[in-house]
Amino acid sequence: MKSIAAAGLLAGSALVLTACGDLGLDFGPRSQAVEKYDVTDAVSTLRIQSGSGDVVVTESARTGIAVTETLHYRGDKPADGHEVGNGTLTLAYTCEDCSIDYDVQVPKGLNVKVDTGSGEITLRALSGPVDVSTGSGEVDASDLLAKTFVAESGSGSVEARFGAAPDSVTIESGSGDGIAWVPGGAYHATLHTGSGEQTLEVTNDPASPKKIVIQTGSGDSKVLKL
Known about the structure:
Layout: H1 2-10, H2 14-18, H3 20-23, E1 30-39, E2 45-50, E3 55-59, E4 65-74, E5 82-85, E6 88-92, E7 98-106, E8 111-116, E9 121-124, E10 130-134, E11 139-144, E12 148-153, E13 158-162, E14 168-173, E15 178-182, E16 186-193, E17 198-200, E18 203-204, E19 211-216, E20 221-225
Parallel strand pairs: 2-6, 2-8, 3-7, 3-9, 8-10, 9-11, 10-12, 11-13, 12-14, 13-15, 14-19, 15-20, 16-18, 16-19, 17-20
Antiparallel strand pairs: 1-4, 4-7, 5-6
């Protein structure tokens, strides 16, 4: 049992590390810092790559991109993790024991891509293409005007509300509900679930160019009418 506990510590389990204080072990205090900055470069794509942390992306009638990063870390503060190249703003950090929460304000029509190992993803009023995934955490998207939407969670529900009829929606969840709220009309809808309810409140027309695919391993699969 001791060897198993030691392996857990070496693997960096947050749960085990939290208990280390009770065992008399000291891995140093955990620090927090908040970084805020604007990006005024010509950018068409936002890409966020995070090992751990929550992500919020909100679209508004603004120019440029405003980023707020909340860093949680031990030891040295992670170095600046953003760069712009080929029209893409990339937000990413490389650190062994840290998590980064992102709150990003973007202008209209930006292509948004998010990939996080663990953390919730919140999307608000996005009108550009969306492609997001999280290994563990919920995806909550609202007031969407995006024509193309792809969202995946290994463990957590994925819910998306559209203010206008999308052209293509793909939602996958290994463990959790997959739900899309869309305006009424005809869609080519495909629903799959290993264990859960299937609900379709719009007209299913295989000839429709508007496609919705929702697949869940364990959880409800639903297309609901707004």
